Amino acid sequence: MRKPWKSVAIGVVLGLIVALFPLGTAFAALSSISDVLSDPEVGQTSMHTVKFTTSASGALGGGDTIAVTLDDDFTVPDGKHFGMRVEAAGIAIPGTSLTNGTLGEVVFTLDAGSSVPASSEVIMTIGGESRPTNPSAAGDYIVEVKTTGDDPGGTCAVSVVADVSGTPGVTGELPSAIGATPWRNLAWERSL
């Protein structure tokens, strides 16, 4: 004879498991991640223009962070406040940045009262006087981006080339009077 209390106990335990660990739960993730280098040549210092879109649940507020971790082969100056611009939906976001050269990481912290809405395209320009230095070998390198609202975040690949002089699409100097250089006008990106 079956004891009904065993069936009830098993049902209660299974109900708790499903309630605490719902099936199909997905982590929020960034999308459309890319990194464009101002100078993709090996060994050169280069600004990084990192773009991504926050998830539908990835809104950020004051004190939240955006972390960009470059591949170990990039050299990131330690403890520098990079000249950094962050914008979301075309609006500049005030905050502070600091680097950790050991981790190859640049962290941007939003100022109090600042915000980035969910599902927003974010553009970070990392550079200024202290710029990361490209790896010494040509190849594709991984860049990781995560935010307080979208962790684990996501990755993209960025290409570093041996010599840009023979690269298709580079056809001479652009007028410096308008502040243009070949590096700032080429899209050296490849998203995973």
Summarize this structure briefly.
9% of the residues lie in helices and 34% in strands. The protein is mainly beta. The protein has one domain (26-160): Immunoglobulin-like.
Explain what this protein looks like in three dimensions.
There is one protein chain. With 192 residues, this protein is mainly beta. It has one helix and twelve strands. The protein has one helix at residues 4-20, and strands at 31-37, 48-53, 60-61, 65-70, 83-88, 91-92, 95-100, 105-110, 115-116, 121-127, 139-147, 154-160. The strands form three sheets. A five-stranded antiparallel sheet has the order 1-2-10-5-6, with no helix packed on it. The longest helix has 17 residues, at 4-20. The N and C termini lie far apart (59 Å).
Topology:
Layout: H1 4-20, E1 31-37, E2 48-53, E3 60-61, E4 65-70, E5 83-88, E6 91-92, E7 95-100, E8 105-110, E9 115-116, E10 121-127, E11 139-147, E12 154-160
Antiparallel strand pairs: 1-2, 2-10, 3-9, 4-8, 4-11, 5-6, 5-10, 7-8, 11-12
